[in-house]
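Exercise: predict the fold of this chain.
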Amino acid sequence: MSVLMKDRHGFKDRQRIALTLICLTIATTIVVSVSIYVDSASVSEWSRQIDIGPVSMMVAGNGIKDDIDAISEILGVTNVSGLDSAHGEISRTNVIYGFETSGNIYTLTDDYMEKFPTTFTLKTGRWPQNESEIAIPQTLADQAFIGIGWHVNYSFGLGFPETLLTIVGTYMQTTGDLYSHYFYSSIGVVVDSLLNVNTTATRAYLSVDTTSITPFDADGSLSYLANIQEEIRLLYPGYPEELLFSGYTVFDYLSTGIEAYLNWRNTARSSQIGRASGIVLIVVLIDILAIQYNLRCKKPELDYLRARGASSTKIEIEAVKEIFFITLFSAVLGIFFAVLTSRLALMAVGYLQFDFSQIMILPVLITRDTILLCVIVSIIIPALVYLGIKTAVSSRGVISDEKGRMGKISKLLKIIRWDLGVIILSLILMFAFYTTSALIQRNPVFNLILPYLPVPIYLAVSSLVMKGLEKSTNYFSSATKRVLGKIPASIGIRRIGKSAKSAGPVIMILVLAITLSWNNVIADVSLPETREVHAKFALGGDIVFHIKKDESPRWTEFMENITDRPEVIDATIVSLTRLFLSAGFVGAADFVGITPDEYRHIGYDYLGNRLNESIYNDLLLEMIENPKAAIMTRDIAEQYEISAGDTFRAFRTQSDTNYYTFTVIAVVDSLPQPMIPESTFIPSGEGYNVGAHKIFVNRLYLGEKIDLVRDTYSYISVSTFDDVNSTETAINLLETGGDIVTYAGDWAVVDNEVDSYLSSTAYKMDRSVDSMLSITSVILLLGVLSVYTTESIKTRKRDVALLRAMGSETRLITKIEIAELSFLLLFSLGLLGLYAPLFVANSLIASLNVYASWSFRFPVQVFPVIPWFTLILLLSIFVLAIMAFIAVVAIKSSRVELNEALSNTWAKAGPIMESEIQ
């Protein structure tokens, strides 16, 4: 029996199991590592969202004061206290700094202050102790220029008598940074006898035990809090037996924070997996390659069992059982390696830039969602792949023998080239998206389709590649005989055609892995460049200040302060107003009044060039000589059929007879302007086309008929040298008097726009994931190539043995192996040149739509930057890794002897007993 068992398990090919496990583990690791990274990165978001202060919930409703003790007995409640408040009014009249405000007046109890001492924090003085005293918020004291010892009038509201109270303290009330409704903000604190009994309401504030609240099970934490909420509602008399709704309203601030955290985490996870559509394709192809390899290598064993009389069911169970345990083990290994791999993304501070000092500090979190995703990727997807392969194999045999209708359908499907049709249709959709109007490009259906358009193209190309390999290897073999030699070309390249179902996925995985790495590099340099060019054009200068109309006497002083700065090149005032091209308020357009000789050194065109270094320079010089000259954008010119050299009129109002007369010296695609005014109407459907519907005119001529201070938006546009910190310069200017002249917060800096863009959470997360996936792609390729070379190991050994028997040298055998794998590499590089530009271009547009503001569209959507050195370096890393692998396989294959090949082919199995497969 022992001999029989040994022979029986001789079929358990460790190599087959190991390689299948490696591939499935790699597939699981790639996807799960992204999810674990999102989970771990969300720990800081969790801390931020649940940092709501000492109060977890607030309960309002008539009668809640009588149930405070009952609330304290609810499981999970740690502290609870009631607080009375009523509507009131505080005022100071007949004084220089008078004010009047109304709101909630509170009275504090010792019990409340003991349990929640930080919600009302005394800043100065003390709390009121009798009916002649009051404490007010510190913010109110600062606004009204009053403090301890001052007097205020207190009443219940309009029509009620006023009582003179002395301020004895000021305080700060915690209102929560995240939720404005966290507490009902107060305007004062008095003793309870001063509250209006008719409007007094008691609210219960409580905190809960947070030991069971964890980001690992955020949904369970919500359920735990929901149970506490329901227990509180059940305290209301008559609910739910007699009343449909409870009279107690629970404001659960902790649940609000957890829900916000879940929304952030789920959005981040879906965003990362969604933009990793290429990675999902790689995972599916790896699963197909691994399962297909496993079934082919296991086929001799299953055939042997069938020959010994085993039933089809038992044979199927034998195959499924092995794959199931492999996938189960791959799930465990996948999570382990995904944790390690996700550390790369967590340590990334930029694309392929890492801070390794954080490796032991950064948190690790694996949520239930990630575990579910792991089950789907490591078990369910391989199961579906297995069923698909079995279905395809069985249906192929049935259809091929069918003589009737199924046979005709089979022939029809062979005639129809679905893959070519998919490629054509996808390319048409891409072309339509990039060339249609803004309204269509803003369509949510298009934006949903756009990121995934390369996926069907990729699948269709994969199909064409596999078909092409089956039919074209003979041609390539004949074409490369002179270069590779007759025997290496004949055996090595034609071997690919025989295993096209494996070689095809290997080639496409190689193409997609390099494409994704290239895409990551190009996005890392192109997106910041695009943001900078867009910011320069949208702001119309390096720094722009929107200056106040009522501070016009200070404008000159502020301008001198700006131009005196050594880091400033020049500065000018730009005026923006809206005039009508027809009487009757028809044909409004933005007129940008500039001083041409100054602004040409400050503004930028839509390509990011300074105006004096662009095609606009000569036009601005002409405007200096001709005050009535105007430069018009093409959309206005086409609307009114105006050409260069034509004259047009502009009106301020419907009855305006003192109109402007301008001469068009040029019609251009777009023009810059000094920021976009807050009052500009932006249609939500089409968005705002930056640079469109504008006319450049001479500011001095514009000022002849209107007041440039009162009737226009006025901006100071500033140009700085490239190597200075423009943001720091702008802040310094504001601190030295500019804040008086500039509208609050209405200023912008190009550098700040770019820095804000690069520091956004979404951008940093994307670059971190890209860094992680670029590194793991190299390991992925080596695993895939291992499967391919091992799958046909018997054929390789047989070929080598026969060549050895015929006296072939090791050199010739090595050339055969090199010819085969080199052809795979060269074929992949050829497809890479076709597919990569399409994928990268589509990815850049999709990424830009994610990071950019939804309401702004620029003449050029994206400015691709091709870092050739980095791309070649990445390609070299992939190629060198593959070449090293080819060398190892070639050397190892050349050492196979005839007796070893025969042993592996004919002496693989032994007898087996029927009882062993029951």
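Check your answer against the key: The first strand starts at residue 57 and ends at 60.
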